[in-house]
Design brief:
The protein is globular, with a radius of gyration of 16 Å. The protein has about 120 residues and is mainly α. Pfam families: OS-D. This is (African queen) hypothetical protein.
Length: about 120
């Protein structure tokens, strides 16, 4: 009985090591090349607009991913996050500032996040 409990606990812990990979095939290049879609994602993330199912799914883990430098992100999610931030910082400067204020108001997390996802 103890073995079953320990194995169950290990299974739960191992499944919590990464975020769900269901959107890992997301075409981030399509998103960042479409200003309207990119703006809609940012509006969702920045609480300026409604979230659709996909942007809402990303948003639910966004704060934790920023604060923990994407520790639970899959490699695909790190790539998506990297490309998203690269483009937003250049093309949507004002929205990026809002993003910073919401997810890193004390400027403690984004540098570590960017370092953690740099190679992706």
């Amino acid at each position: 009985m103890k073995v079953i409990i320990v194995l169950s606990a290990l299974l739960v812990l191992s499944s919590a090591e990464t975020y769900s990979a269901e959107n890992d095939d997301f075409d981030v290049e399509k998103l960042v090349s479409d200003p309207a879609s990119l703006g809609a994602f940012l509006d969702c993330f920045n609480d300026k607009g409604a979230c659709d199912e996909l942007s809402g799914d990303f948003k639910k883990d966004l704060r934790e991913a920023v604060e923990e430098a994407c520790k639970k992100c899959t490699d695909a999610q790190k790539h998506i996050f990297k490309r998203f931030l690269e483009v937003v910082k250049v093309q949507k400067v004002d929205d990026y500032k809002i993003f910073q204020q919401i997810y890193d108001p004390e400027n403690k997390y984004l540098s570590a996040l960017e370092a953690a996802i740099a190679k992706y």
